[in-house]
Description:
Blueprint: E1 11-15, H1 19-30, E2 34-39, E3 56-57, H2 59-62, H3 68-84, E4 93-96, H4 102-111, E5 116-119, H5 120-126, E6 136-140, E7 144-145, H6 148-161, E8 165-168, H7 174-177, E9 184-187, E10 201-211, E11 221-223, E12 230-234, E13 239-243, H8 256-269, E14 277-288, E15 295-299, E16 302-306, H9 312-329, E17 337-339
Helix pairs in contact: 1-6, 1-9, 3-9
Amino acid sequence: MLQTTKRPDSPVSIIGAGIAGAWQALLFAQAGHAVTLHERGDAAMTDATSHWAGGMLAPWCEAEVAEPIISRLGLRSLDIWRRELPDTPFNGSLVVAHPRERNDFERFARMTAGHERLDAAGLAALEPSLEGRFRDALFFPTEGHVEPRRVLPKLHERIRAAGGTIKFESDVSAQDLAKDLDGLVIDCRGLGARDEQPELRGVKGEMILIETTEVQLARPVRLIHPRWPLYVIPREDGLFMLGATSIEAEDTGVSVRSALELLGAAYAVHPAFGEARIVEFGSGLRPAFPDNLPRIGIRGGKISVNGLYRHGFLLAPALAELTLAYVQRGQIDNEVMQCA
């Protein structure tokens, strides 16, 4: 088994500069380790799953369909986001539904906690653009969201400020890095790790980016939908991300059916979205294990962090904290960690 206690300045090599690897690198660098973060892509990170993510920090909402461990780790991650990036927007999230989805809306309310029920007036006070659109809503005041394409470079900057090194276009193998017996290798390659974790699969998540000045939202809005809860996430400069598909397929791109449903559901949130300009279509493949739960694997001189599924930005900080606690103190979280 891996030696759990490391010198404060012992080298740590991390593969994958997406959200999972970035948080591992940041916490280990802050703890005094000599961190090198390797990324096979370039600094733009356009090929990374993180590039197509929604950036939702919504552990209470996820409790409707996810296992309790997701909420537990997610709530811990909120504290770490607040500590490390205090400008992260934590102004809550909203869940709404039209009358035909009323039963599903009430089920969502029963399956989740941490929310307040708003009437139409309360919703209008919180989001004036939604005045008269819905008769009530669920407000989750402690949840937040980030814009992945902006926050990932910020994390990379924090890593460098903490003394870490980032090497882009560095296509290295865990086996080669592990030859350094004095160091530690943390594998955060996502689907790229299927050479060692063949049980991983890719779950496609599609997104559409639209632009309009006719709607202003201060927080993500989830619309209960017959197939999936659509979310509308406000970005800067009048942009909104539409997403929430989870498709068991590993092709890229956005299907016509998904595009119609996402755009139609956005129109159902507010008719002004019908006049919005489409800026971008895209999709990312989320790495998932058969149980859709995250896993920290410990084998020999290497640690793997993978299977974040659709919860990458929500879970990555807490998983990095668990990895660091194991390396420094031998602390094991039996729900997440597997030792071989």
